[in-house]
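User: I'm putting together a teaching handout on how sequence relates to shape, and I'd like one worked example. Could you take Mutator family transposase from Kitasatospora purpeofusca, show the sequence you're using, and then write out its predicted structure as tokens right after it?

Assistant: Happy to. First the sequence, then the structure tokens directly below it.
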Amino acid sequence: MTTDSENPAVEQVGDDLVDEVVERLMDRADASGAALLGEGGLLTQITRAVLERALEAEMTEHLGYEKHDVAGRGSGNSRNGTSPKTVLTDVGAVTVAVAVPRDRNGEFEPLLVPKNARRLAGFNERILSLYARGMSVRDIRSHLAAIYGVEVSPDLISKVTDAVTDELTAWQNRPLDPVWPIIYIDALWVKIRSGSVSSKPVYLAVGVDMDGRKDVLGLWVGSEGEGATTWMAVLSELRNRGVEDVCIVACDGLKGLPDAVTATWPRATVQTCVIHLIRASLRLASKRDHPKLVPALKAVYTAATEQAAEQALEEFAGSDPGTRYPAIVQTWQRAWPEFTPYLAFPPAIRKVVYSTNMVESINSRLRKATRNRGHFPSEQAALKVLYLAVRELIAPRARDVNRVAAHWKEALNQFSLFFEDRLSIQ
């Protein structure tokens, strides 16, 4: 059976009707000289009319008969005029002059504009969207005043954003899948006031599920110094939320993390980020030497076996760039225990775990949300902004772009073989 939404002809008719209505409205605006936005503007008038029509429909549903219908005589309840009300919407402050109908028995509870509500849901979402993009309360007030002509108090913005606190708590405590092929772990630094302003790490865990999609598992504010104790608390929380096993935990060499991973998931493989090693190496060298360093390091991380990688590193250590920059050799030697698991992986798995760029792309979005804030008044305020940014990233409309690799099924099959019976492919 074909629905209207699946019928191109029906969709075309709908589009034509919308275009016709828009043309009529624009002609009317041109003829009258009416503005598009602001009080008295065209969109404001349309919004008011739509709200009034919808509220009248709600009243009809409540009473069981149309306005002026003789069926309402003797029904025991009837319309009793209207009450003026001002509500905030996405197109500004709309004064609904006759928008809220009343009934004589006082039983009508409108759903579109509930009693005591002054903002429609869309307006709250607009504030949260601006907040998630790193705008401060002052910035949001200025933006709403400039674009919509609406003066919004700081208290109102705080109430709207505070409303996500319960949602954040539920998200942070939601149950998780028992087995994950990969979990990427990283940290970003934000300034938080705690007596004085200081930079604190916010730890980020991103899991790749069996469908090859990424999901942010949690956010945690840590102390200024990282260590095994901090990581044990983070990983234990993931374990308590249902994560029983992880094949690979990829990270950027965070202090204390490998030991904490082993203690939490004994069978997990800790893999350091290859890109992180390359970047750390290049930071130790002059840019003019980068063209020589990159091919030499590539010979190490693309080696077919661990023995071949050791030989490539020895050759680099004895080369001119290696003797000039011995700290680069030491960087790879220190990371060797967490780097070498990569060399045993099949090609499809190597492609997926090559770097933490996937989690870094999320970090980039989160940094944008915090960059303009200067500092946060509390840890909770920082988590609130970061969660709102994450919420936009994990929205259903973004799920298809959250794929980890184009050839994930091939990688998943190799995961299943490489990690024996720990993964079950449905």
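A couple of points you could highlight for students: Residues 177-422 form one domain. Residues 24 and 30 are 10 Å apart (CA to CA).
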